[in-house]
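WARN no homologs supplied; continuing
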Amino acid sequence: MEIVHLLRQGRIRQLYQVESAAEQLADSDRLALRRERSAPLLERFGIWLEEQVPRVLPKSPMGQAIGYARSNWAALNRYLEAGFLQIDNNASERALKPVAIGRRNWLFAGSDGGGRTAAILYSLAATCKGLGLDPFAFLRDVLDRVCTHPAWRIAELLPARGSKPEANSAG
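OK structure emitted
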């Protein structure tokens, strides 16, 4: 019965509705909206979770879901700390989906070092794609510039720092 009550209230849906309303806002405005509208929703959800603990069997599907939510409560609330954070990790899940699908193909990377190198390159490619950069052009540009770039400014070459491939590196 309680699950029906939860679904009727649509607590999770309400949180996503706030996110939808905040989608086009600047990070600071998004954070203010979250603190105004999402924080009370999460607080009530946390109270509801605590109320359910004595009412459900811990090993039942509902009990396991409640236990999971309670044990990850800090992570579930993390997006209330900064406007640029997302409510969920769906983007990460989508980025990792090809890895999960291709896992059998990459079962033998040759060595632990080869597996580590493949993981680094895959992470770099996924980051570039997420930022709208061509991974090959980005890597080629960085490799062309890294030997003359000052070591103390090496972080400038990271894709998240806005390093864009130079026009002459594409050819």
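DSSP finds eight helices and no strands in the chain.
OK
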